Please model this.
Amino acid sequence: MSAKRNLLYSTNTLALAIVLFVILVIINGLSKKAFKRLDLTESKRYTISKSTKKLLGQLDDIVRVEAYFSEAPDQVKLIKDEVKDMLDEYDAFASGNLQIEFINPTEDDDLKQKLRMKGIPEIQVQVREKDKIEVRNAYMGLAIVYGDKQEVIPVIQKTTTLEYDLTSAILKTTRKEAKTVGFLEGHDEVDIYGQGFENLRRELGKQYTLRKIDVSEGSPIEGDVSTLIIAGPQSPLQANEKYEIDQFLMNGGKIVFLVDAVKMAPGSIQASPLSTGLTDLLSHYGIQLGNNLVQDISHDNLTYSQGGFMTITRPYPFFIKVLKSYQYSTGSTSEGFPADSVATSGLDSLVLPWSTSLSVVAKEGISTTIMAKTSNQAWTAQAPYNLDPTRMFTPPSSVKNSYPVAVLLAGEFTSFYAGKEIPSASNEDGEEDTENKNKDRKTVEKSPPTQIVVVGTSQFLRQPRVDGLTFFQNSIDYITLGSSLIGIRSKQISDRSFKTDPSTFARLTIKVLCIGAIPLLVALFGLFRFFSRMRAKRMVETYGRV
Model:
């Protein structure tokens, strides 16, 4: 009986263990597909975005992610672990279409040569060991492969932008056709290939082929250009150039207009009114440019040098600061980035220097989305403009308003040149070209559904800040690709400045608390511990140990 009982007990135990094992395997399998992550950051920085999940769910074939990481030193291993965590989360939403492989190329010279050809370098990392600093070689890169297309992330030294970089690379390799973004030239526009625009050019190059566009000779804009950027022309566009822009739009192209109201003298804040020749064109499409400069109680500072050795920073109302939410002394609030503007709703703030106001002109079949607008305490200035930062800026007691400064138009546009003669290009002497290049051309009078972005300044590119560059990239991405990358990029941008300017006493109080509060708390805790131990010691001496 005892043997039977032992056998039965052993059998039951084994069966229970098998059942528990199967349950754990099932739970583990399900948890990979249906898991929850507790992310307490406001922007959900450690959770992949809905855009990434949607992209991964739409993969129709295998995407390989090759992660090249050395095993040492420790800081490389730390980055590797963070990358692995994110790739595991990507894999959970990819429905089996993501293959991930971690490779250590440190001891493989042939592989090192192949990685150099791929564009993944061996980098040097400083390591502190045994009270000395050493330099070691390491790999910290990714390659994303889809069929015969490949994108690389050469070096990952921090993971704050990893989701954007990784999703951007997957999107570019899996997209059926490449997208080209053209930048109009010939009128002193922002030169994307000029000095100071390396970061912007690199970021845009992750998704697009970039190209300069010259329409001065009356040639149509190439059909493979998806989006045209007109970034702050400083001289008037001629009629034949405007015609090519109009026809690009009529053929389904997307356009971003950054239009300045003033021309700034190089190296100064002297300004004169600027005519770009675009006013009538934009008015026909649905936007009236204001002949003014906007000032706002919500503004940023201007920093400039004086005397060649002194740097001065002053509040400057011409540097309007658009906020996600404006809060007024009356207790009322208003939105700077309306919720229905996908390209800007993820931003906290945006500084637009020397911007003109925009007015919407109602057009049949054209929908309008305000992307950014001032507070309702803004006012405008007309020419002649006094931009001197040392003068007293006094808001008017009345005539304060909220002004749109960036607008999105969408719909089927009608041509500005419908029913008109096609303008001729001018020759080098400024005379109309007698050769009839347009004899076989026919004006397209209505566009398919397309989009236009209009911003009342280009100065946020000429004086680059992170918020301005993010806004610019979001605008291009939205009209060219949709909202795939916007939510990922925007959640990296946060403005934690005060909503209202604190008083001198408030500033001093905050400074004292930040500098002295923590050391004071530590000192008070130390005193508490000291007196507690002294009291305990006296009690032991008086009553003895229990």
Observations:
- The mean pLDDT is 85.
